[in-house]
Amino acid sequence: MSINRVIISGNLTRDPELRATPNGMSVLKLGVAVNDRRKNPSTGEWEDVPNFVDVTMFGARADALARFLKKGTKVAIEGRLRWSQWETPEGDKRSKLEVVADEVEFLSARDDAPAPAPARTPMPVEDIDGGDEIPF
Q1: Residues facing 27 on adjacent strands
Q2: What is the CATH number of the domain that holds 86?
Q3: Which pLDDT value is given to residue 1?
């Protein structure tokens, strides 16, 4: 058995590109910058180093998201990895690893305002397993 799941969060590096396949399926292409925190060996200081991730989403959700996403939007994306390779007209071999998105969640509200906290109804501790103790 193998598992191919990935979750990333970061900011869009460009406005999304919405296209369609010849049979009419929508395809949304995104670029997401995901920071990696590393210690600079020269200075000893911690710094954020961006990783740039290509993301693709298909179908009706791609149409809907294209209207709301823009460069700089902070998102969380869940999906799977896909590796593809091709040859250029000049004969050069190319390949890339990308995320095929199943879910996209907005982490920043419109106009870059902070996103509201998700509304959740907490479960009282006494309702867990019928007692006052947490079962772990």
Answers
A1: 19, 58
A2: 2.40.50.140
A3: 86
